[in-house]
Automatic annotation (TrEMBL), chain A:
This is Ubiquinol-cytochrome c reductase iron-sulfur subunit. Belongs to the Rieske iron-sulfur protein family. Its cofactor is [2Fe-2S] cluster. The main subunits of complex b-c1 are: cytochrome b, cytochrome c1 and the Rieske protein. Residues 91-189 form the Rieske domain. Coiled coil: none annotated. The lineage of its organism: Bacteria, Pseudomonadati, Pseudomonadota, Alphaproteobacteria, Sphingomonadales. It is found in: Cell membrane. It is an enzyme of class 7 (translocase). InterPro entries: Rieske_2Fe-2S, Rieske_2Fe-2S_sf, Rieske_Fe-S_prot, Rieske_Fe-S_prot_C, Ubiq_cytC_Rdtase_Fe-S_su_TAT, Ubiquinol_cyt_c_Rdtase_Fe-S-su. The gene is petA.
TrEMBL record, chain B:
Its main location: membrane. Heme b b566 binds at residues 113, 214. The keyword Magnesium does not apply. This is Cytochrome b. GO terms for cellular component: respiratory chain complex III.
From TrEMBL, chain C:
SUPFAM superfamilies: Cytochrome c. This is Cytochrome c1. Heme c binds at residues 72, 75-76, 203. Binds 1 heme c group covalently per subunit. One of its GO terms (molecular function) is metal ion binding. PROSITE patterns: CYTC (PS51007).
């Protein structure tokens, strides 16, 4: 078995071998450590490049005109490339939502908490089922609204009530309410 | 496939022992680039460039994969998607400049690697296969680089694609149909862009495969060295690790410094301004030039201006491809028993002239086609072919080489880097072949 | 065998080259042209963004943007730049929104589905000035005003070129040009400018008088100053990440230098008792 030292041929100075061979190992350790840190520093921008780009992030707001939505009707808009449901609740639907005791809910929230003050008839939610992301039915004319009169997800049977709250099926939480504000009585700005 | 004194892999941990018994991959790595590969002790810095070429390919593959996630392969949006990478994608400018300049770095490193092989006779027996695979890698690199340059779909991308596919139209009779088939249309457009992207993504992995063969073939005889004298015994070699891994680490640092200099402070220096103008099939740039690494070959193409049996265009295309293909025959054109040009006093001068000649060709390739430049290009092109096809066979037979050292160790102990010869010449044939 | 065939091929190539060489020697030199002789290299332009430590001068970029907006934007688009990018020039969110609001961007009428326009928002990119190439040609005497987003990277020495071009117009062809090349003429509708490769371009001098724009920061708006500012602005539009690149570059080079030093030490240590 050859070793490094035995490879030194006769006639070559071997004086330095008497020194502790580990004496300057810190240089190698340091170089390898720096290479490791450098590789890590290079990986970061590579990973980060896969995050949403500036133009994607900038598409952060959507304006919706409410004036044409009659009570009982909904519209689908898009917000960050996802469906957005805007629904004008009828008084009966509001009453049905308010009448549901919170104790019956999987994700307890009142209708008031999910709408703006004084605008309880405007239910604005993402049209993304909280189970696995399908688009629930119920926003379009004549679509199946499910057993609770709100939305029904055809993928795995989650049913939402008139406040967009999960009532049955596998979805864990209510339909998400995005940040939005009324910029006038008939327009909202989402995002 | 190693010298008898090569160290055997001994797994240090039970886990590695377990792995090694079932799949001897750790052993393979150990024998390829670890302490199990004995390497001549006298390699100079020119022997760093093989590892650096591997590093450059790795950089290209990694940055390329992430860029492909953002790039749009459509003639109407390709240019915009590249600008979006530069402006909106997080660290996108870094990745794109790293990829664009990385290509240049890859070529710089590979050209030095090739020059090293030429000077020290690394292509000669028993390393012909290493050389042949190297030329294959070089051809694949050129194709990959060309197709990559088309992808940003700037003016130079478009007209580069037009001109280079135009080479094929020089072929008599079938040329034009071949060109149209290559492009999938009458001019470069969506079809060409898509197939170039597909192949540009594929070919680096083909290159990586051929590199594995290249290294495999290298490990059969072992590395050449500046004396060109074969390894005679254990005292002539050191284990690759830690000796050459440490040296390659230092070389990598220098490489990265140069790379960072281009990437961060002159990212467009090696590119062409016209490629920041979106491709316009109706307007040719005033002065079409390829990337710098193709300029010598472009000069050869342009130097053939006379019709003689074949027309000038076909001569140019034949000569341009021939200038690379002749490298395949180099091991058999050079008949000299001596590898290293350090011991070939006459041939050495011709090699130095060749190096200058290629630089001149590079200049002519990028210069305007004035009469003076064309003249220089024609003389330089003639030398290029005469060097390899006429001068080399004659000189290698007629030259009297200087006496070789008896062994690498003797050369090392006599003087720096084994450049000073001993009194007695030892014919190469006596060197022992390493055990397989 | 190969050592017989190869020299024949080599000599064959050389022979054809010699034939070409005689052709080159006997062919007449291309005549010197006015475009070749009187085309000038760009003047030197010092900008804060030049050099290894270069950073943008936001005040200057804002002035340059003002020149672009009030002068260039009449014909030249900036289609790769988004309004939101202007925040990098030091504009507040509200200022960016106000700038975007001044522009009309393409949209669809929500009632009829017909093409329409709407007020720009920060997320939009600068809209095109002309809907297509035909419209651009029709409005500009058959010349297309190029998009300016990448202009300083799309020309050699781009920023200096823009500055030189804007300040280099000459009302008539100089006497020395007409003396030497009597046949050289500037076609009607074109303007003489020695910094343009053909010496004559369709764009009329855009910066004609001092105080053509009124700078908010009180900088005197000379033609020279306006040209410099808009050149600086176009460096930013072409390479908005320049300052970040320089910073990252200095850090990287420093890091790699330390690594290289350590690697060199490691190399020398490992080889210290090994002559080579």
């Amino acid at each position: 078995m050859a070793t490094v030292d035995s490879a030194v041929p006769p006639g070559e100075s071997s004086g330095e071998q008497l020194e502790n061979p580990r004496r300057r190992d810190y240089l190698s350790i340091g170089a390898v450590a720096f290479a490791g840190v450098g590789a890590g520093a290079i990986v970061l921008p590579i990973i980060n490049s896969m995050s949403p780009a500036a133009d994607t992030l900038a598409l952060s707001s959507t304006e919706v005109d409410l004036s044409a939505i009659q009570p009982g009707q909904s519209v689908k808009a898009t917000f960050r490339k996802q469906p957005l449901f805007v629904r004008n609740l009828t008084p009966q639907e509001i009453a049905a939502a308010d009448a549901t005791p919170l104790s019956e809910l999987r994700d307890p929230q009142t209708l008031a908490e999910r709408t703006k003050e004084g605008k309880a008839n405007w239910l604005v939610t993402l049209g993304v089922c909280t189970h696995l992301g399908c688009v629930p039915l119920g926003a379009g004319e004549g679509e199946n609204k499910g057993a609770f009169g709100g939305y029904f997800c055809p993928c795995h049977g989650s049913a939402y009530d008139t406040a967009g709250r999960i009532r049955s099926g596998p979805a864990p939480t209510n339909l998400a309410v995005p940040d939005y504000e009324f910029t006038s009585d008939t327009t909202i700005l989402v995002g | 496939m190693s010298f008898p004194w090569a160290k055997q892999y001994e797994p240090k941990s039970p886990v590695m022992k377990w792995v090694d018994e079932r799949l001897p991959f750790p052993r393979l790595v150990y024998n390829a680039v670890g302490a199990g590969y004995p390497v001549p002790r006298n390699l100079n810095y020119f022997w760093n460039f093989g590892v650096l070429a591997g590093a450059a390919l790795a950089i290209q593959i990694v940055t390329g994969i992430v860029l492909a996630m953002q790039y749009s392969t459509d003639a109407t949006t390709a240019f915009f998607s590249v600008e979006r990478i530069m402006r909106d994608v997080p660290a996108g400018w870094f990745l794109r400049y790293a990829h664009a300049n990385g290509a240049s770095m890859f070529f710089i490193v590979v050209y030095i690697h090739i020059a090293r092989g030429l000077y020290y006779g690394s292509y000669k027996a028993p390393r012909e296969m290493v050389w042949l695979l190297g030329v294959v890698i070089f051809l694949l690199m050129m194709a990959t680089a060309f197709m990559g340059y088309v992808l940003p779909w700037g003016q130079m991308s478009f007209w580069g694609a037009q001109v280079i596919t135009g080479f094929f139209s020089a072929i008599p009779l079938v040329g034009e149909p071949i060109r149209i088939w290559l492009l999938g249309g009458y001019a470069p457009d969506a079809a060409a862009l898509n197939r170039f992207f597909s192949l540009h993504y594929l070919m680096p992995f083909v290159i990586a495969g051929v590199i594995i063969l290249h290294i495999w073939a290298l490990h059969i005889p072992g590395s050449n060295n500046p004396t060109g004298v074969e390894v005679k015994g254990e005292q002539d070699t050191v284990p690759f690790h830690p000796y050459y891994t440490a040296k390659d680490g230092f070389g990598l640092g220098i490489f990265l410094l140069v790379f960072a200099g281009f990437l961060f402070f002159a990212p467009n220096m090696l590119g062409h301004p016209d490629n920041y103008i979106e491709a316009n099939p109706l307007s040719t740039p005033a002065h079409i030039v390829p990337e710098w690494y193709f300029l010598p070959f472009y000069a050869i193409l342009k130097s053939f201006t006379a019709d003689f049996i074949l027309d000038a265009k076909l001569w140019g295309v034949l000569a341009m491809f021939g200038s690379i293909l002749l490298l395949f025959f180099l091991p058999w054109l050079d008949n000299s028993p001596v590898r290293s040009s350090n011991y070939r006093p006459t041939y050495r001068w011709f090699l130095i002239v060749l190096a200058l000649d290629v630089l001149v060709l590079g200049y002519v390739g990028g210069a305007e086609a004035t009469n003076g430049n064309v003249l220089i290009g024609q003389i330089a092109t003639a030398y290029y072919f005469l060097h390899f096809l006429v001068i080399l066979p004659i000189v290698s037979a007629a030259e009297r080489p200087r006496p070789l050292p008896n062994s690498i160790t003797e050369a090392v102990l006599k003087g720096k880097g084994g450049t000073s010869p001993s009194q007695t010449a030892i014919p190469e044939a006596h060197s022992p072949q390493p055990a397989e | 065998m190969i050592r017989i065939i190869a020299p024949l091929i080599g000599l064959g190539f050389a022979f054809v080259l010699v034939l070409g060489l005689f052709g080159t020697l006997t062919s007449e030199a291309q005549p010197e042209t006015a475009e070749h002789e009187f085309h000038e290299h760009p003047k030197k332009l010092d900008l804060a963004s030049n050099g290894v430590f270069g950073k943008f001068d936001n005040q200057q970029l804002q002035r340059g943007f003002q020149v672009y907006k009030e002068v260039c934007a009449a014909c030249h688009s900036l289609k790769y730049v988004a309004f939101r990018d202007l925040a990098a020039l030091g504009y507040s969110e509200a200022e960016v929104a106000a700038i975007a609001d001044d522009y009309q961007v393409p949209s669809v009428n929500p009632d009829t589905g017909e093409a329409a326009t709407r007020d720009g928002v920060a997320a939009d990119r600068f809209p095109l000035v002309y809907p297509n190439e035909v419209a651009a040609r029709a409005a500009n005497n058959n010349a297309i005003p190029p998009d300016l987003s990448l202009m300083t990277k799309a020309r050699h020495d781009g920023a200096a070129y823009v500055y030189s071009l804007l300040t280099g117009y000459q009302p008539t062809v100089p006497a020395e040009v007409t003396q030497k090349y009597p046949e050289f003429q500037v076609s009607p509708g074109l303007n003489y400018n020695p910094y343009f490769p053909t010496l004559a371009l369709a764009m009329a001098p855009p910066l004609v008088a001092d105080n053509q724009v009124t700078y908010a920061d009180g900088t005197p708006a000379t033609v020279d100053q306006m040209a410099k500012d808009v050149a600086a602005f176009l460096v930013w539009t072409a390479e908005p990440k320049l300052a970040a690149r320089h910073t990252a570059g200095l850090a990287s080079v420093l890091f790699i230098l330390i690594f290289t030093g350590l690697a060199w030490g490691s190399y020398k240590t490992i080889w210290r008792d090994k002559k080579h």
